[in-house]
Design goal:
Chains A, B: It comes from Halopenitus malekzadehii. The structure is a homodimer. With about 170 residues, chain A is α+β, with helices and mostly antiparallel strands. The first copy, chain A, has six helices and five strands; from the N terminus they run αααββαββαβα. Chain A binds a DNA duplex (17 and 17 nucleotides) through helix 3.
DNA sequence: AATGAAATCGACCAGCA
DNA sequence: TGCTGGTCGATTTCATT
């Protein structure tokens, strides 16, 4: 319904998206100056990109450290291989408070879970809750010493080959 | 300078943050109605939270699928254990276009890298670029079949214990 | 820390290339 | 379809409590 890998953009769209992806708190004036486009045109394009689902939402980026969430762990979760379970286990894992992201992978280990909490006791609680999920077999966790979040910014992070595939010539 | 794990919030702050974290595209009217607070007060609190660095930025959430970025991989990277290198290797890995996130962990494997691209050839390019980084020893990649992003939303995702530590009684 | 009034900015409409 | 210009309503700012 919203998927569109073949949705084409022009250079202006890409530039606009790059701007608002890193900071939506700029005024239309600023954008129209940077892009050499009228305010109305910028507004028009933004609305189109929202309607198309390219811009999913506008959100406040909160600093986890401001909440004391400075402990991150990666947990590898293997499950008992009974068909159909995997789908629900994934959402169950994601439903655990403190779990940030769940990757379902091919390989020996079935899930990789990223969780972020304040201290060890909370981390223990998270892991215990994961183990308690029906179908979860074994878990193995590693603490994250440091993380480099290069890019939640999709546009800035596009490989060159990807970028050229998107812009109409 | 901006870190503050002991910065305290009240219930109103938490509620406000929960709202704007999931959607900043709401009007002040809506917020002030939901929170039973005057528009100006909402605005005042938002500014305070921005200045305090709790709200790091306001950004447009783009859908990677709209750019054809539907291939995700987790790559475990082990490095030659020479002191000091690790820091720069992390940022080098994060600098590779297509790499979304880098976790530096304790354990046999030193880094876990999340990358997102359009197709296999781009994935190959990403991995080759990682291998070429000075100090990188070995890599092992797994494709992600599915991902459940439960919470980039920090507030919604707080463990109960974490929440009670933040709100002043 | 919260309020209300004044200046500023963004959203929408009708028309045009 | 993509853009322009102008109007109205909303938001930001500031002086005041």
């Amino acid at each position: 319904m919203s998927n569109s890998s073949d949705g084409r953009f022009d250079e202006m769209d890409i530039e606009l998206l790059r701007c608002v992806e890193s900071d939506f708190d700029v005024s239309l004036d600023t954008l129209s100056q940077q892009l050499d486009l009228s305010k109305s045109a910028v507004h028009y394009r933004l609305n189109k990109l929202k309607d198309a689902g390219v811009i999913r939402s506008v959100t406040a980026d909160l600093d986890p450290l401001a909440f004391g969430l400075d402990m991150v762990a990666l947990t590898e979760v293997s499950v008992t291989h009974e068909q159909g379970y995997s789908d629900t286990i994934g959402t169950d894992l994601a439903g655990v408070k403190g779990v940030e992201q769940v990757y379902y992978t091919m390989g020996d280990v079935d899930f990789v879970v990223v969780s972020r909490v304040q201290d060890r006791s909370q981390m223990n609680a998270v892991i215990e809750e994961m183990v308690a999920i029906d179908g979860v077999n074994e878990t193995s966790s590693r603490f994250v010493m440091d993380e480099v979040t290069s890019g939640t910014d999709v546009v800035d992070n596009l490989p060159d080959a990807a970028r050229s595939k998107l812009v109409e010539e």
